[in-house]
Amino acid sequence: MDIKVIAFDADDTLFINEPYFEETEKKFCGIMEAYLSHQSLSQELFRTQINNLPLYGYGIKGYVLSMIETAVKVSNGTVSVKCIEMITELGKELIQKPIVLLEGVEETLKALQPHYKLVVATKGDLKDQQRKLHNSGLGHYFHHIEVMSDKKEIDYLKLIKRLDIAPQEFYMVGNSLRSDVLPVLEIGGYACHVPFHTTWAHEMVEHNVEHENMSEIANITELLPLLLPKSA
Fold it and tell me: For the stretch 35-66, what's the b/e string if a residue is b when 16 or more beta carbons lie within 10 angstroms of its beta carbon?
């Protein structure tokens, strides 16, 4: 490998994210349980989120709008103003959740920084992701921060062009096979899958992924023997 840039996903790769959404979804289902079972509400919310992705993209704001839309739909327009207020409060709580770094993240970034350009390549709402990265205390490790509207092949090619490198000089690290691994492999880059214990259904891949340019590790610190020069 002739890697020059290592890119990291943010949510559930650098710090906790999905458990907060799962907690919020349970509270939403509690608010709306007079209309449907929790399982049915979760399914309706998921369908609404997926349908709204082309409009709102990824992130908390789109999630809140999808919760409100779901509430209106399942209630046939009878949901109370009080319930809508409670749902918007869930969104505010979600935005203010603490930033909890995953085990080994900072020591890994510190060890890799002298040898590579490190960047963040993540999806979501720009303001929210900037806030989380600032509050994480990790910002100074990164040469560049890219908040992407999506993570498809074309999005990675645009990022690589901005970084002025070739695909084979790019190494992506993340918890999502769909967003962090498969598109990068498709364009000729390298990718490392670091599974998180819970993953949003939209990010799941049902088939096994095997590729000569792919690695899978249990903890982010396992990047070090893979990527550090032998003398380091």
Answer: bbeeeebbebbbebbeebeeebbbbbbbbbbb
What does pTM read for this prediction?
A: 0.88
Question: How many other C-beta atoms lie within 10 A of the C-beta of residue 154?
Answer: 11
Q: Residue 31 — φ and ψ, nearest 5°?
A: -65, -40
Distance CA 163, CA 26 (A): 40
With residue 38 as reference, give the H or E element that holds it: helix 38-56
Residue type present at position 110: K
Output the furthest CA–CA distance in the chain (Å, rounded).
67
- Alpha carbon separation from 169 to 4, 27, 31, 68, 188 (Å, rounded): 5, 44, 49, 43, 9
* DSSP-assigned letter for residue 209: -
DSSP character for 146?
Answer: E
Q: Given pLDDT bands bounded at 50, 70 and 90, which one contains residue 48?
A: very high
56-91: pLDDT as tens digits:
988 899 999 999 999 999 999 999 999 999 999 999
Tokens in use for 16?
A: 């906790």
Q: Which contiguous run of DSSP H or E holds residue 148?
A: strand 144-148
